[in-house]
Specification:
Elements lengths: L2 E2 L2 E9 L19 E4 L2 E4 L20 E9 L3 H12 L33 E2 L24 E2 L17 E6 L2 H4 L3 H6 L3 E5 L6 H14 L4 E7 L5 H14 L5 E6 L5 E6 L6
Parallel strand pairs: 8-9, 8-10, 10-11
Antiparallel strand pairs: 1-2, 2-5, 3-4, 6-7, 11-12
Length: 273
C-alpha cells in the first residue's frame, strides 16, 4: 500500500446511488459506523472510517455496494473509536429528533440482519458421516457436511457463532470440484471459507482473515489448495493473516492434485517465509 500525507491506495466501498433504495440494512452491518442514510440514500460518512473489508456487501439486497481500489484517506482506527463513542452516547437534552436505532448499533449487531438472504450468517446441523457404499451396491446417500453460510470469504462476516471454537477450513474454490470426497474427508466438523488467490483480491483476503482470526476463538486452521503454482498464494495469505492476528494456532496446508489426489500435507508455521 502506498501512502502520502494521509492518502493511501487501498480498498474502499462505493455505493451506486441508482441501485440504492435507502433501506438502511447496510448501516448496522458496518462495525465502524461508516455508513448512514442521508436524503434517502446510503452514504459513506468518511473514508477514514471505512476499513475496506466489505462486511456490508452482503447486507445490501440491491447489490448497490462494491469495493474499489483507489486513492483514499487512510483508515484511522482511533477516529473510528471516537466516532462510535459519539454515536452511542445519549442524545443531548436539546435534541428534538432521536437518531435512528440502526445508526447507534454496536459492533456485534453485524451478526443479526435482514439483508440479502444469500449473505445472512447461518449454521446448519450436519448429518453423521456414513461410510461410502461399495461400487455396484446401493448405500446411504452422501450427506452434506457444510455447517455455515456464507462460505465465500468476501461475503463472510467478521464475527459469527460458527467461528466459536471452530476448526477453520480455508479452501481454494477448485478443491471441492477436484477432490472426490471433499465433504467426508476435508469438510466434516469444520467451518468453511473459500476463495481464489488468483482471481480475487489477496490483500483484502489477508486483511479480512486477520480480523476473523483476531476476533474469534478459532481452534485451528487448515488450508486446502490446488497443485497449480498460483494457488499456493492462498497458503501465503493465510500465513500472513495468522501472523498479523498475533495468535498462535495449529495450522496446516494440504495440496490437492489436479486429479483430486491428496499430494502433501505440511505445517503452515514451518514454511520459511
Amino acid at each position: 500500500m502506498s501512502a502520502t500525507a494521509g492518502v493511501a491506495t487501498r480498498e474502499v466501498i462505493v455505493i451506486d446511488e441508482e441501485l440504492c433504495d435507502g433501506c438502511g440494512q447496510c448501516v448496522p452491518a458496518c462495525a465502524e459506523g461508516a455508513l448512514q442514510i442521508v436524503n434517502g440514500k446510503a452514504r459513506l460518512v468518511s473514508e477514514v472510517y471505512c476499513d475496506g473489508m466489505g462486511a456490508c456487501l452482503g447486507h445490501c439486497p440491491q447489490c448497490a455496494i462494491t469495493i474499489e481500489r483507489r486513492a483514499a484517506a487512510a483508515y484511522d482506527e482511533a477516529a473510528v473509536t471516537q466516532h462510535l463513542a459519539r454515536q452511542q452516547a445519549p442524545p443531548a437534552p436539546a435534541a428534538s429528533v432521536a437518531r435512528p436505532a440502526a445508526r447507534m448499533a454496536p459492533a456485534h449487531a453485524t451478526e443479526h440482519h435482514s439483508g440479502c438472504p444469500g449473505a445472512a450468517a447461518r449454521m446448519f446441523k450436519t448429518a453423521e458421516v456414513a461410510e461410502p457404499a461399495d461400487a455396484g451396491h446401493d448405500g446411504p446417500a452422501p450427506q452434506s457436511q457444510l455447517r455455515n453460510w456464507p462460505v465465500e470469504l468476501k461475503l463472510a462476516p467478521l464475527q459469527a457463532p460458527y467461528y466459536d471454537d471452530a476448526e477453520l477450513l480455508i479452501s481454494a474454490d477448485c478443491v471441492a470440484f477436484a477432490h472426490p470426497d471433499f465433504h467426508r474427508r476435508l469438510l466434516t466438523g469444520r467451518t468453511l471459507l473459500i476463495g481464489c488467490p488468483k482471481l480475487d483480491d489477496a490483500d483484502l483476503y489477508a486483511s479480512k482473515l486477520t480480523e476473523i482470526i483476531r476476533r474469534n476463538s478459532i481452534k485451528s486452521i487448515s488450508v486446502a489448495f490446488m497443485e497449480v503454482p498460483c494457488c499456493f498464494g492462498l497458503v501465503a495469505l493465510v500465513k500472513q493473516a495468522l501472523a498479523d492476528s498475533g495468535k498462535q494456532l495449529p495450522a496446516s496446508a494440504l495440496r490437492i492434485g489436479l486429479e483430486g489426489d491428496e499430494q502433501q500435507r505440511f505445517d503452515l508455521q514451518a514454511l520459511p517465509f
